[in-house]
Specification:
The complex is a heterodimer of chains A (about 120) and B (about 325). With about 120 residues, chain A is mainly alpha-helical. Chain A has 6 helices and 3 strands; from the N terminus they run E-H-H-H-E-E-H-H-H. Chain B is of the alpha+beta class and about 325 residues long. Chain B folds into 3 domains: about 140 residues; about 110 residues, no CATH class; about 45 residues, no CATH class. Classes of the chains: A mainly alpha (about 120), B alpha+beta (about 325).
Chain lengths: ~120, ~325
């Protein structure tokens, strides 16, 4: 699983970590797969372990992982169904880039769709 | 070399040649049998020898050489693919040839010497000569086969992931053997442990000896799952217990690729494998693997389903 964080970005680190996991779900993580131990991930990315735990808690609140003592963070069955959406988002971004639409216009289009 | 022509060459060395040797040996021995008048020595041990019927010799050859040839050739044929054979495949191919020459040659010689009512007291010279002849002929078989491949076939180069300045990227994952591999190993270890306990308590303390294979198998089962991390510090692969541990620092990474691994053909089996040229393989399943060529000589191969992503991240970090 690929994880990326950019400390210079205004987006909080735990949000960035959660986004990494969401995009991994889009690449097809199966239900029951375990995310790396928080300690290992924290030391790999040189971030605080609480940052990783906060990201995992956020994902749990979204219903994407189960947090179990001793087993760590496990991908839920619900999350495994997440991949079609991510695939469409990837396609959306590719198309938007091709047409020269910037990030803000695409996001406002998505917002409008949600509002309707 | 195409798959079928390589198969023919391998089968010629691993099956045809040893069976011809065994066949000639058995025919000669059957021819000499009428000249053997009494029982002959069939077993030599520290406490002397024991005698048996002379036809034990050809029966023994047929019973050992033929099944061995069949099993090893079947394994070999299952692992053949187009291209050059691997060192391991060539090795598997010449083992039956060596064993056939060794066993058939020594048996035929010992039977020949025991015609009449003569008994052989010390079989060491015949055994040694046959052993050496087996090695020489196996070497001949080795050179009849095409030269071994020096690299993994089906190497797929990867596109290094672009790592922006200030960005931190890591790949973390675990890779494990399939349940079909893990269950028998763990079950056998548990069975041996149970046998050790039962024998020790109810029969004798020699049952404690059963603990040795139980512990070895138990420890082996911990290298059927590995944790792999790729980050700023390089690549680290560690077994379930944290040991053994392999580390490739980023400045030691010469090249990263994805390869298709056939455990038997490429590494001669599963588990933690060591090949020629300081090549280390963490070989848990057939299929995709991450291959890291090291600047300091040697390479590390780890089978994993997500090898492409891992290779791209490692290549990206190493390039930065």
């Amino acid at each position: 699983m690929i994880f990326t964080v950019d400390p210079s970005s205004p987006v909080p680190l735990f949000e960035q970590l959660a986004a990494s996991v969401r995009s991994e779900l889009g690449r097809g993580l199966a239900a029951g797969e375990r995310l790396p131990a928080a300690r290992d991930l924290a030391s790999s990315l040189e971030v605080n372990i609480h940052t990783v735990l906060r990201a995992y808690q956020l994902l749990r609140d979204e219903g994407l992982v189960d947090l179990r003592r001793g087993r760590g963070a496990v991908v839920t069955a619900q999350a495994a169904g997440y991949s079609p959406v991510t695939a469409i988002v990837t396609q959306l971004v590719t198309e938007a880039t091709r047409l020269g639409l910037d990030q803000d216009s695409v996001i406002s289009l998505v917002r409008k769709e949600f509002a309707s | 070399m195409t798959r079928s022509s390589l198969t023919i060459r391998l089968v010629a060395v691993s099956a045809v040649a040893p069976l011809v040797v065994a066949g000639i040996g058995i025919a000669l021995m059957l021819d000499w049998l009428p000249q053997v008048t009494g029982p002959i020595v069939v077993h030599w041990g520290v406490s002397g020898h024991s005698v048996g019927p002379a036809d034990a010799y050809p029966i023994l050859i047929a019973a050992i050489v033929v099944p061995l040839v069949v099993v090893l050739t079947a394994i070999l044929v299952g692992s053949v693919r187009a291209g050059s054979p691997s060192v391991q495949q060539k090795f598997i191919a010449v083992i039956p040839l060596w064993l056939s020459v060794f066993l058939t040659g020594s048996s035929a010689a010992l039977l020949f010497l025991q015609r009449g009512s003569h008994l052989v007291d010390n079989p060491a010279p015949e055994l040694l000569v046959a052993f050496g002849a087996g090695i020489v002929i196996a070497f001949g078989g080795w050179f009849l086969l095409p030269p071994a491949a020096t690299q993994s076939p089906n190497r797929m180069p990867v596109k290094a992931r672009t790592v922006a300045a200030g960005e931190r990227v890591a790949w973390l994952g675990r890779t494990s053997a399939s349940l079909a591999t893990v269950i028998p190993v763990v079950a056998l270890a548990a069975l041996l442990l149970a046998a050790a306990i039962v024998v020790t308590f109810f029969v004798s303390t020699t049952g404690l000896l059963l603990l040795v294979p139980a512990i070895i198998l138990g420890l082996s089962s911990t290298i059927l799952e590995w944790h792999v991390s790729i980050d700023e510090r390089g690549l680290v692969a560690r077994g379930l217990l944290g040991l053994p541990r392999y580390r490739v620092p980023l400045d030691d990474v010469a090249n990263t690729a994805v390869v298709d691994i056939n455990p038997l053909a490429d590494f001669g089996g599963w588990g933690l494998r060591f090949g020629l040229g300081k090549r280390v393989g963490i070989v848990l399943r057939t299929g995709r693997a991450l291959e890291v060529l090291r600047k300091s000589a040697g390479s590390l191969v780890i089978t994993m389903p997500d090898a492409t992503a891992a290779a791209e991240v490692l290549a990206g970090l190493a390039a930065r």
